[in-house]
Amino acid sequence: MLSVQGLTKSFGNTRAVQDISFDVPAGMTGFVGGNGAGKTTTMRMIMGVLSPDAGQVLWNGSPTNREIRRGFGYMPEERGLYPRQKVLEQIVYFGKLFGRDGAAAKRDGIELLERFNLADRQDDMLDSLSLGNQQRVQIAVAVIGRPDFLVLDEPFSGLDPDAVDSMADLLREYNARGVPILFSSHQLELVERLCDNLTVLSRGRVVASGSRESLQRSGRIRHRLRMNTDVGWVRDAQVSVLDVAGDTAILDLADQAEADRLLGEAISRGSVVEFAELVPSLSEIYREVSK
Ligand SMILES: Nc1ncnc2c1ncn2[C@@H]1O[C@H](COP(=O)(O)OP(=O)(O)OP(=O)(O)O)[C@@H](O)[C@H]1O
Q1: What is the pLDDT of residues 168-211, one digit of tens each?
Q2: Cβ neighbours of residue 46 under 8 Å, at least 6 residues apart?
Q3: Same CATH fold assignment for domains 2-208 and 219-290
Q4: Binding site membership of 35 for ligand 1 (Cβ less than 6 Å)
Q5: Residue 200 falls in which region: left (phi positive, over 0), alpha (psi -120 to 50) or beta
Q6: Which atom of ligand 1 is nearest to the CA of 12?
Q7: H-state helical runs in the chain
Q8: Residue nearest to atom 1 of ligand 1 (CA)
Q9: Locate the ABC transporter domain: which residues (predicted)?
Q10: Among residues 29, 154, 184, 237, which one has the fewest Cβ atoms lying within 10 Å of its Cβ?
Q11: Ligand 1 in contact with 13 (CB < 6 A)?
């Protein structure tokens, strides 16, 4: 597990991140936040590209160093590949930098290119590929060293739906092998689809962090009541009413006792068609904590 502890970083007078702490356990962790929230700065500190003003990064309980970070795969925001180098050569080159044997890196590189439908482009120059395809090569480079941990800065941006799916499949596979993944994204529907955990930054601070389950249970759970009759009466039922429209009401109930009381009153007034908890989606949680 990776732990970020109290990281702080300023650029001149700009406080990019301030005393942020969160864990990246096994599974996939979505790292979200508005423009300038501090995601890239945090990822760069995790990778040792930037040094923090304060705080530390732990990997399985030990402070990270160059050697530990050699086991981390990274897809930086500024996609740092060589435009005038052949695709496969480039993947093999990075594989060797990560200590892989050349032949093994070549074998894995070809397999990765096949997965991304790029096998026939392996001897082409990188800059002859479309941007989306260059991004697929960039992810191949991030995983060619067989990383223990993956840090991916906006891996899905600019990809078409097929490329998103093949990227997502690849990440799930690494995840299943026990590689924790931290990825940033502005695409909340993807975060919703892929993530077990979520960390939300807002203006350089962590405003929510944890498993999907714990985050969904931490706020107040809303309820939807639908009856075979008008539910306008809930306005006088001394509960917090978020919305009423005809036969349906959305309610913010304090606890089980309040839910039981409301349901009892509903039954005494007609037939209850639905009385259900509305568990928030990760996107809703994101919007709520980022206000
Ligand atoms: N090298 C730098 N020099 C000066 N300011 C910087 C530098 N890098 C980041 N910042 C500032 O730090 C803050 C956080 O930026 P960062 O790139 O980490 O945010 P982000 O969450 O990745 O944003 P985005 O979603 O727009 O990529 C911003 O105010 C940014 O302008």
Answers
A1: 998 999 899 899 999 999 998 899 899 999 999 999 999 999 99
A2: 2, 4, 57, 64, 72, 151, 182
A3: no
A4: yes
A5: beta
A6: 4
A7: 39-46, 66-69, 87-97, 102-115, 131-143, 161-176, 188-194, 212-218, 256-269, 282-289
A8: 11
A9: 2-228
A10: 237
A11: no
Stated pTM of the model: 0.86
With contact defined as beta carbons under 8 Å apart, do 250 and 220 qualify? no
Nearest CA to ligand 1 atom 23: 36
In this prediction, residue 84 carries a pLDDT of: 87
Angle between helices 131-143 and 102-115 (to 10 degrees): 140
CATH for 2-208 (3.40.50.2000, 3.20.20.140, 3.40.50.300, 3.40.50.720): 3.40.50.300
Whether domain 219-290 has CATH 2.60.40: the reply is no
Domain ranges (residues) in the chain: 2-208, 219-290
Ligand 1 and 37: CB distance under 6 A: yes
Provide DSSP, 117-167: T-GGGTTSBGGGS-HHHHHHHHHHHHHTT--SEEEESSTTTT--HHHHHHH
